[in-house]
Known about the structure:
CATH superfamily: Gcn5-related N-acetyltransferase (GNAT)
CATH topology: Aminopeptidase
Strand content: 25-35%
Order of helices and strands: EHHHEEEHEHEHEE
Largest sheet: 8 strands, mixed
Helix content: 25-40%
Structural class: alpha+beta
CATH class: Alpha Beta
Number of helices: 6
Distance between the termini: 22 Å
Amino acid sequence: xxxxxxxxxxxxxxxxxxxxxxxxxxxxxxxxxxxxxxxxxxxxxxxxxxxxxxxxxxxxxxxxxxxxxxxxxxxxxxxxxxxxxxxxxxxxxxxxxxxxxxxxxxxxxxxxxxxxxxxxxxxxxxxxxxxxxxxxxxxxxxxxxxxxxxxxxxxxxxxxxxxxxxxxxxxxxxxxxxxxxxxxxxxx
Length: 188
């Protein structure tokens, strides 16, 4: 999930690699960002299945974890890893009070650029169809729906696990953005 994020004015932010000292703040950001889904039929699923400190530590050590700071404090993060030899965005969250300021877009572009620099040809993700700061947000940033016939074995497993957790099939989709030398191509 990503916090609401349209280009609006607000405090400047910086994006940097995540570190172990960030973990507690990032877990809080995830919980606070999830409140944006209050009233949505999947809110309880998001509230019950959150990242662990271990997930974030793994992201720091092996994946791509970027943190957005406003005034020297963490305001959002993006966590990526590898799925089926592609970069995969596991989570992106922004504190609700810092939403709609371009932080989510900045984080997304930072992890896509880092993934491209590491040689990944594409970034995949799973998201909600019906939430403005989910599928429509990613579509504005060059992600397109990836047909099920193109899902690799690991991506299929992720989707199966999401369904077992209670995510309704009709609301979830897999998206992909091609990455070319740090820049995105808009086709799959």
